[in-house]
Amino acid sequence: MFRQKVELVRNVLAGMPARDREILTRFYVREEPQDQICREMQLAETQFRLRARPKLRAQRTKVREEWFHVRKEHGASWR
Description:
0% strand, mainly alpha, 4 helices
């Protein structure tokens, strides 16, 4: 199941615009500091917040819904 979850997250990220994918990957996966990402990608803090947080919320919801369907197909409960 772990591999399926990883694959699901990869698919969701792959479906995003490259810039948004880079921001989310650098911040949430690589755990790079916001100021470094903003500096290197030439983003204002406001741009970072407007791109990263709403995108993450939307994608997190999508991952949860898809993961629920994967678990349901395999006869497993949500948890």
